[in-house]
TrEMBL record:
Record domain Plastocyanin-like: where: 86-196, 220-336
Source species of the chain: Methylobacterium currus
UniProt KW keywords: Metal-binding, Oxidoreductase
Name of this protein: Copper oxidase
SUPFAM superfamilies: Cupredoxins
Residue spans of biased composition, Low complexity class: 435-444, 475-496
This protein's record includes keyword Metal-binding: yes
Amino acid sequence: MNRREFIAVSGPGAMLVGAASVSGRVLAASVPEAASMAEVTTQPPLVPKTGPDYNPVVTLNGWTLPWRVTADGWKEFHLVAEPVEREIAPGMTAHLWGYNGQSPGPTIEAVEGDKIRIFVTNKLPEHTTVHWHGMILPSGMDGVGGLTQPTIKPGETFAYEYVLTKSGTFMYHPHADETFQMAMGMMGSFVVHPKDPAFMRVDRDFIFLTAAYDIDPGAYVPKVATMTDFNIWVWNSRAFPGIDPLVVAKGDRVRVRMGNLSMTNHPIHMHGYDFEVTGTDGGWVKESARWPEVSIDLPVGAMRAFEFKADNPGDWAIHCHKAHHTMNAMGHSVRTYIGVDQREVAKRVGQLIPGYMPMGSTGGAAMVEMGMPGPENTLPMMTGTGPFGSVEMGGMFSVVKVREGLARGDYKDPGWYQHPAGTVAYKVQDGAAPAAQTGTAAPDMNPARIGAGKGGRGPTLEVRARQRTLGMQGMATSDPMPAATPTTSSMPGTPMQHDMSTMGRQR
Ligand SMILES: [Cu+2]
């Protein structure tokens, strides 16, 4: 049975409802149809048509689970735990376990005070449960197999019922064979909006979960016993360049919510802004308890929400700052050849293996430039193309695209940022004085400002571009400059300084 047939029989007509496992209160009523999603692109937010007003979240490369409200006021959802096929990025699909056609499962959204009933149907080949991470609820609804409930056997449907006592950022995942099941991609986000629509209101609200898979190049199923040496680092089971951009209108107040169900922490770093953590899976953070950051450590088994005012237009990288987490399938036993002259070796090996290319003598970028073909169903280690060339990233990397004049609710990719004249780093011609830039980002030529702080914006930065000598001697920057190569520091009186404050936003 392929996945399409599988979904076809998982419709309401074929729903398997174990009478013993569904609460007596709902026996008479039907179990709501389980929606399923085939798309891997970010779906538009699900704006509530009834009930309290709130600004729905946007799940990166995901969607929100539709619900229905019963006559007696229960908000009902239906999750189906099942095997899924998830495209990690174009060129690689993984065979995972998830919910309702995707991994992660759909985001559940509801409102503080809601009475919710979540049906969980198990279409996995083994038992499962669902734990509602961070929720304050009755012990018997906590979803810990064996401890608070019997596990949900294959074919059974269970119902979870509780009242959402507080707003915030939560997630759900199995608490039965959870090591293997989470390693297979079983997880989802759960957002509870405040009852007061004005409380913590933002214009754009994004959410994603971090995870990691160990999938050998050419394989489809993650190695579920791997503890630390993963090779595919994902947000919502997508890796760069498969992660959609976070599209934002200039002037918006933006929240990014993120959770971590991988085996290690992720320092999530965003360029172009400073911001504050305004919420965790424990609740909202009081204003007096917040501090500015540009990287937020996302611990294992935790969620963080950070907020900023999008006043600085541009294409701003957002990524995990662990460098190996912004790479795709990489053999971690690759040897280091930086500084090693492989030319003689290459000649000899080339006699045995025509076309043999030694790599790594000058670093890793050559591997990207050569565009070496990989095996089927895997992703290049460093990849992605931007307007200026290869981005040389993978894994947990995306772009926050802040643009002027985007309509409310417009999340379409606006393309690459059109930089105003004079605001892009530029190549200095050999032997020539730096070309005068126009616009707001002209280099500051005032020597009095060398190294001096200015208006609390931090010290000016003196940039001395030096030509590296490459080759047998390696990449040490202390190598003597070749006499024929003029350097900026050899031009008396014109050290090239860029006052970084002129590059930044105007507050
Ligand atoms: Cu990371």
